[in-house]
Amino acid sequence: MIKKYLFALVLVCITTVISFNNSLALPTHDSQGKELPSLAPMLEKITPAVVNVSTRGSYSGNSQLPAFLNDPFLRRFFKFDIPEHRQMPQSHALGSGVIVDAEKGYVLTNNHVIDDASEIVVTLKDGRKKVAELIGTDPQTDIALLKIETGDLTAIRLADSDKLQVGDFALAIGHPFGLGQTVTSGIISGLGRSGLGIEGYEDFIQTDASINPGNSGGALVNLHGELIGINTAIFSKSGGNIGIGFAIPVNMARSVMDQLIKHGSIQRGVLGVQIQDLTPELASAFGVKETHGAIVAQVIPGSAASKAGVKAGDIIVAVNNKPVGNSTTLRNYIGLKRPGDAAHLKILRGSKSIELKAIIGGNEQSSAQPVKSASTLGFDGKKLHPSLAGALFGNNTTGSGVQVLSITPASPAWQSGLRKNDRIIAINRYRIDSISDLQELSKQKSNKAIALNIHRGSSALFLVLQ
Question: Which residue among 109, 204, 405, 443 is the one 20 to 30 A from 419 at the CA level?
Fold first, then answer.
């Protein structure tokens, strides 16, 4: 009896969710004429926009393996052993793609699907095959843009992926294992996933909608039938789906696509700062209530940030009115801009909120890179002579600071991440230039956590001593 009530409750919930847009998710009928919720009408409209992508080109493969095991998605992301392989003259990699402009024939897919291909063939849902032209690629976001001959094509609408929430329903559409077009369902399991080591610029949507080899480059859509992401990878140790899949947000894909259409290539914007996440400990040390943002650990002389007036210790909380959640968010925002674009920065400097305008630069060497803090007080130091500072930390080092000579193991300084030969530049944004400043450090320690601005080699970062 209880099971019947639970089943009825689940059915009511599903019906409520689906019925929000009758034009897309219309009810169907069972054999007795009763209405049942279905996504079939919506899928009928959008699945023609999801295509199969096959390629030919030299690669290292194994002729003894099934075709789907030579899928570049599988070889690249799954962590299991594939038998020894030998060089093959031709490949026939299988992936997916999404038509995003029917009038111009633009198709989005993954870079790893078409990488090193000498020929790319797009197969539509109705079986028509079209040779695709490669407009451009961006390996750092794993996006590629293709163009096919127009004529009776169906495109998918693009959603605003910034509005996604964990718990939103999601459908993955693609061609897994060469079986033909397949639709799987799930929810948005997580947002802003980064640090996975898959791409250079990561801001993945995580979903439990099944994504498998051959789904690469396929569509992740919402219940309105709008594209919210490009399926690109899964986390798996066996090669099978375990409910952890990743898609590139459509807003990131759209930004890359726009550059490729307009310029044919991607140029990375550079702000010229070294940054790190605003942690609760650093927020306390800086005396701010913000829970999100990126702290500027160092400003590169002559960079866009330097010219705009950004200073070490500033906390960047928004760019062009978009909130900056952490250092990765800021790096993605800036990296998807082109040199010469304007970036309006909202900054916290002490108790003040200020706005600065930076004109993005283009020197990849000075790109904003998140600084990795040490995972983990007693130490001795000495005033660092400017000449020694130049030898240890580079000729562009200004001032002296204090060099750390030794640290007591397991001390608060050690646990905070401070190490021998680190150069302490500032305490809570106040310049350090003598041993007496270090002595003042112990007095401040008794009152609250303190933030040390450290130079370590060519990097700069903040450490919190508690």
Answer: 443
Does the active-site annotation cover 216? yes
CA dist., res. 1 & res. 83, Å (int): 52
**Euclidean distance between CA atoms 98 and 48, whole angstroms:** 9
Give dist(CA 437, CA 434) in Å, integer.
5
- Which entry of 71, 96, 112, 210 is annotated as an active-site residue? 112
- For 410-444, the pLDDT digits (tens) are 566 776 777 777 777 777 666 666 666 665 655 55
Catalytic, 161? Answer: no
Question: Under DSSP, is residue 150 helix (H, G, I), strand (E, B) or coil?
Answer: coil
Q: Is-contact 404 381, C-beta < 8 A? A: yes
Sign of CA dihedral 263, 267, 268, 271: negative
CB atoms under 10 Å from CB of 139, counted, come to 14
pLDDT at 270 over 80: yes
3-state secondary structure of 49: helix
Q: What does the alpha-carbon distance between residue 440 and residue 109 come to, in Å, rounded to a whole number?
A: 57
**Catalytic one of 210, 216, 327, 373:** 216
Q: What's residue 134's pLDDT?
A: 92
The pLDDT tens digits for 302-356 are 899 999 999 988 999 999 998 898 888 888 888 888 888 999 999 999 888 999 9
Res. 227 pLDDT band, cuts 50 70 90? very high
- Bridge-partner residues for 380, per DSSP? 406
Q: Are 149 and 51 in contact (CB under 8 A)?
A: no
Q: What is the DSSP letter of 384?
A: P
Residues β-bridged to residue 187: 169
Average pLDDT over residues 199-212: 82
Catalytic residue among 71, 101, 138, 142, which?
A: 142
SS3 state of residue 62: coil
d(CA 115, CA 142): 10
By CB atoms closer than 10 A (0-12, 13-18, 19+), residue 6 is exposed
* Dist. CA 164–CA 183, nearest whole Å: 20
CB 227 within 8 A of CB 158: yes
d(CA 117, CA 58): 7
Q: Which amino acid is at 412?
A: P
Beta-carbon contacts of residue 45 (< 8 Å; ≥ 6 apart): 24, 154, 225
Q: Would residue 142 show up in a list of annotated catalytic residues for this protein?
A: yes
